[in-house]
Automatic annotation (TrEMBL):
Pfam families: DHO_dh. This is Dihydroorotate dehydrogenase. PROSITE patterns: DHODEHASE_2. It catalyses: (S)-dihydroorotate + A = orotate + AH2; (S)-dihydroorotate + NAD(+) = orotate + NADH + H(+). It comes from Robinsoniella peoriensis.
């Protein structure tokens, strides 16, 4: 019998396909396109302790093979999220991973403590957003800060914690090791790469924030390389992402060492991408007479 299920930090996922934070809302916008029951997990948009307005507009722009965004983690805050979004997601037989953001260690801890009593399977801690001045990437670019925030969050978390790493560093394995030392249960990578676009006709920045995070197929080779490096540097399971649009893309990440994968920007131009990837992975396993997807994890050395 075909096995597509994978395990991360003791949690069983029916398949390795997840949604990338911030590109799938909390699932409701996409539920008319995708049966959420078919996904391994829904990873929610970043949630903070209080509502955040996000950055001024314009805050997204298309680029070759992708897009740049500087949304700035707009979100309704944890109370609205817990009342509105968790009950919606609980209707489906998929795992719930909540992405957590904050400006200070205390902010992150407050959200983690609030979620402790909620029916959430794992927490993904975003220490890698390039579009906020405080918190976010300020934590993710300093190994001491990565280790410290991981330790503080881990102390308070009821659910296993996934630390989400930034690619905007010289050596991502240093950050991965710091998160492992701080007690992380898993890692996810990559967040967006800092970029810039200039509107030549108007002679101004395309985004009000000047810089934004580059995502989509353009970043995939960078992401695959980083997943491979991190898989060979730490023992933690990895959720790989960055430009995944097809089953073949997803399989590249798994062969490089990811236990699961997330689909982000692809959802915007193909809202059924996640479901197609689930199906495509199954077809690949059958065609290649592979009984268990776990045989593929890190199979390319
Ligand atoms: C519009 C947009 C919003 C995002 N919001 C978040 C977020 O709230 N938290 C987070 O950790 N990552 C966020 N990300 C990063 C994605 O989860 C993902 O790491 C990145 O886009 C790379 O994957 P992709 O190329 O498949 O989009 C966002 C990305 C985009 C494009």
């Amino acid at each position: 019998m075909l096995n597509t299920s994978v395990e991360i930090a003791g949690v069983q996922f029916k398949n390795p396909v997840m949604t990338a934070s911030g590109t799938f809302g909390s699932g409701s916008e996409y539920s008319e396109f995708v049966d959420l029951n078919t996904l391994g997990a829904v990873v929610t948009k970043g949630v903070a302790n209080v509502p955040w307005a996000g950055n001024p507009t314009p805050r997204i722009a298309e680029t070759y093979g992708g897009m740049i965004n500087a949304i700035g983690l707009q979100n309704p805050g944890m109370e609205t999220f817990c009342k509105r979004d968790i009950p919606f997601l609980k209707q489906f037989s998929t795992k719930i991973i909540v992405n957590v953001c904050g400006k200070t260690t205390e902010d992150y801890c407050q959200v983690v403590e609030r979620l402790a009593e909620e029916p959430v399977d794992l927490l993904e801690i975003n220490i890698s957003c390039p579009n906020v001045k405080e918190g976010g990437i300020a934590f993710g670019q300093d190994p001491k800060a990565v280790e410290q925030i991981t330790r503080e969050v881990k102390k308070r978390a009821k659910q296993p914690i996934i630390m989400k790493l930034s690619p905007n560093v010289t050596d991502i394995t240093v950050m991965a090791k710091a998160a492992e030392a701080g007690g992380a249960d898993a890692l996810s990578l990559i967040n967006t790469l800092t970029g810039m676009k200039i509107n030549v006709q108007k002679r101004c920045f395309a985004l009000a924030n000047k810089t934004g995070g580059l995502s989509g197929p353009a970043i995939k080779p960078v992401a695959v390389r980083m997943v491979y490096q991190v898989a060979n540097a730490v023992k933690l399971p990895i959720i790989g992402m960055g430009g995944i649009a097809t089953a073949e893309d997803a399989l590249e990440f798994i062969l490089a060492g990811a236990t699961a994968i997330s689909v982000g920007t692809a959802n915007f131009n193909n809202p059924t991408a996640t479901a197609e990837i689930v199906k495509g992975i199954e077809e690949y396993l059958i065609e290649n007479k592979i009984d268990d997807i776990r045989e593929l994890i890190g199979a390319v050395k």
